[in-house]
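Troubleshooting: if your tokenizer reports a length mismatch, compare your output against this known-good record of 201 residues.
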Amino acid sequence: MGRSPLDKELVLQLKSGSAAAFRTLVETHQERVINTCYRFLLSREDAEDVAQEVFLEVYKSIRDFREEAKLSTWIYRIAVTRSLDLIRKRKRKKRMSFLKSSLGLEEVAERIPASHGGNPDSKLENRERQQVLQTALNSLADNQRTAFVLSKYEEYSYQEIADIMGTSLSAVESLIHRAKKSLQKKLANYYEKNQSGNKAV
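Known-good structure output:
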């Protein structure tokens, strides 16, 4: 993939240890890196922390950057990898805390269906829908979730996603197609259970 002369010049400056070049890099990519991390982590604070780690890794590893991809692609690939790493750590912590407690209140709360009675609070309903969607997203395979999130929420092109994930265009199309089918099935199952649960009450 072709790289612009500006990209090449910036990489040369970064490799020479230029603080000004590094500031330019951060200013150019910081917001999109934070937004990308946020789509996976759903916490602005965590996203900003991970973004700092991303730029620190870029600073430390720039001399090893072989320019086989665009500089921005390499940065966003690190952002996705770091975000997924944090999610895996969270899952491990959650499993441990659940095992330590005889009754996980959070898990119980997640199983309580939303009220569809008289005057439903629309904010609560919207929050619940978001939670259900996020749970469904979290249950996808990492590669499916990555492709879907980058396409749906961050509006990366399929080619950009292929570059970030280090895969082919057809593989990205297939991952997004499978992710959509899986999400539709999971959400349909959830709402079917919810509806039947409410009718039984």
